[in-house]
Amino acid sequence: xxxxxxxxxxxxxxxxxxxxxxxxxxxxxxxxxxxxxxxxxxxxxxxxxxxxxxxxxxxxxxxxxxxxxxxxxxxxxxxxxxxxxxxxxxxxxxxxxxxxxxxxxxxxxxxxxxxxxxxxxxxxxxxxxxxxxxxxxxxxxxxxxxxxxxxxxxxxxxxxxxxxxxxxxxxxxxxxxxxxxxxxxxxxxxxxxxxxxxxxxxxxxxxxxxxxxxxxxxxxxxx
Length: 223
What we know:
globular; 4 helices; Protein Transport Mog1p, Chain A; disordered N terminus; alpha+beta; 223 residues; 11 strands; single chain; 3-stranded antiparallel beta sheet
């Protein structure tokens, strides 16, 4: 699939064809581990946006989010496994939905019932890729125009992590479609994992950042 076709399909699926099945509700998570949270107010990190209240946990081999970490879920957000597309759509959208920049999606956390968007968790296909390299490839892998990339190293729960933010513009629509993205990568059990959220047509940073901050600041090793 060429870049323009990939972007067109991706744009058409913005509202959530990644719907899966099964949630991973558990007892609310405890306080996040790790060092102090970074404080960079305003553009581009918006650290003044505080984590959401916890409402459960996700992660672990037996959960709908089969990754080697656990993380707290925001209240009203649900972890869902990714169901491969079937039927006539399978060949057209399968790769767009599940592959991006050398990473494969493992699950999504759906916040629409709570008025939010999506938090998606990806695993790098190469076990040796560094967190920063995984983020760079991930940002470039959607076929969008990427600008304003910034990085920072920090603690995310019990892990050393690298975080990236960037602006993405869909080349098939007007310039006003520029949106900000945030993603954080950690390494656990021989995998590099990417946690990603973005502003969208109907979601603002205050819709997605609280759940994202809660999840990454509460990361712990899974089973």
